[in-house]
Each structure stands twice: as structure tokens, then as C-alpha cells.
Amino acid sequence: MAVGGRSATPEVIWARPERAGRGPRPAYSRADIAAAAVRIADAEGLDAVSMRRVAAEIGCGTMSLYNYVPRKEDLYELMVDAVGGEYEFPERPSGDWRADMRALAHQTRALMHRHPWLPGLMSPVYGFGPHVLRYLEYCLTCLDGLDAAQGTKLELVATVNGMVTTYVGNELATAERARSLPWSPEQENAARAAYLGREIATGKYPRVARAFAEDPGPVDLDAAFDRMLGRVLDSFT
């Protein structure tokens, strides 16, 4: 039994017709709905995405939208898959699985910076739409040269995505905090560096002192990303 287009039993949005119920040809496509939701999230954040806002964006009534998208969670799934269509894959992998996975990880990082709400939805719950399945198939094709079971290869893909999501999440949080402060990032860093210098000078933290003496910073975020990614990939050989 369905109420307002919403099923009382579990279902996957991709297994539903584009529009529930009888009547004329659907006036909107899932791509239209997903694009509207993505525009709102990009401009105002994920919290701004609601069925009412998306309905207004595409020009239909809120209750009418439920005939296309039964739940907000389904809307999230459409959004994740829509931005997954932004990946650019070569005609075939290079044959060097490490290089190919590195390239994909860099695309994922860029994708998350274009859509800062995406790390918050990186979950298998929202992960198996058509574009995401295309991405996963390409990843496994890249890994044809890795001597490992298919399950291990899936774990590699999940581990790389987890690392990228965490890394970008920290980058985005740092940038958001900097925007909220009444002073510049340079002033903030100078104050923190002065504090750390005083604490280290006490001699209570010799290992921390050696670590900072070895690499006083600032941290090259791109180089650090590459190093961390390399360590993840090396762990699967």
C-alpha cells in the first residue's frame, strides 16, 4: 500500500518507474529533480534541500514531487548519482592500476570540493545508482592487473574513497572555520605557532619538538594527499 506516492515496503528508487501512479507522461525527469537539488545544496548546503524547496525549484507542487521521489533519502540518492556523472573516464585504463586509482582519487577530491555537501552523503546507502555503478565498474577494470580477490578490490575502492572523504572533510571544515573567524587565517596560524613554540620550548614534549624541527610546515596539502593515497594503495600489494 502506498500513501502520497510513498511505499509502505522497502524499495529502491532506481527500481521504480519515473513517476508513480496513472496519468499523463511525467512532466519532470529524475535528472531534472536531481539537478535542482544539487543546485540548492551547492548554493546553500545540504540542510537547505527539502522536498518543498526542490518542488519550487522545478515548478511543481510539493505533493506532486512525492509521485516522483517518495522520500528525502531517495532525493539524496538521486543527488549522489547525479554528481557521479561528472567523472571523466578514459576509453580504457592505462594498465597501471596505481596510477589509475590515483587519478580517480584526485577526481573524487575535486568533485567533493565542487559539491561540499557530498562527503556527508558518502555511504553505501546512497551508492548504487547508474552513474555510481559505472564508476565502480571502471574502478574494478582498473584493478584487473592487481592479483587479488574481487572482494579485496572492492575493499580497496572503499578504503580509497574513505580516505578521500575524510581528507576533504577536514579541508572543508578548516575552510569553513576560517570563514567564520573575525581574523585572517594568517593571524590565526601565527597565534597558534607562537603558542606551540612556547610549549615545545618547555622541553616537556621532546618527540613533538623533533617532529616540528624535522618539518616545520606549512603543510603542502596536495603533497600530503598524494603521500597518504600512496600508503593506502601500497597496503594492498
Could you please describe the fold and organization of this structure?
By secondary structure, the chain is mostly helical. 60% of the residues lie in helices and 2% in strands. The protein has 2 domains: 2-84, Orthogonal Bundle (Arc Repressor Mutant, subunit A), CATH 1.10.10; 97-234, Tetracycline Repressor, domain 2 (Orthogonal Bundle), CATH 1.10.357. It has helices at 30-44, 51-58, 62-65, 72-84, 97-114, 130-142, 150-180, 185-201, 206-214, 221-234; strands spanning 2-3, 6-7. A two-stranded antiparallel sheet has the order 1-2. Helix 1 packs across helix 4 (72-84), helix 5 packs parallel to helix 7 and helix 7 (150-180) packs antiparallel against helix 10 (221-234). The longest helix has 31 residues, at 150-180. The protein is flat and about 70 Å long. It comes from Streptomyces flavidovirens.
Round the Cα radius of gyration to an integer and report it: 22 Å
Largest sheet: 2 strands, antiparallel
CATH hierarchy class name of the largest domain = Mainly Alpha
Domain count: 2
Instruction: Could you tell me the CATH topology label of the largest domain.
Output: Tetracycline Repressor, domain 2
Structural classification: mainly alpha
Whole-number average pLDDT?
Answer: 90
Uncertain residue ranges: 1-5
Shape: flat
Biggest β-sheet: strands ordered side by side in the sheet: 1-2
The CATH superfamily label of the largest domain reads: Tetracycline Repressor, domain 2
Helix content: 55-70%
Summed up, the helix count is 10
SS elements, strand count: 2
N/C terminus separation: 51 Å
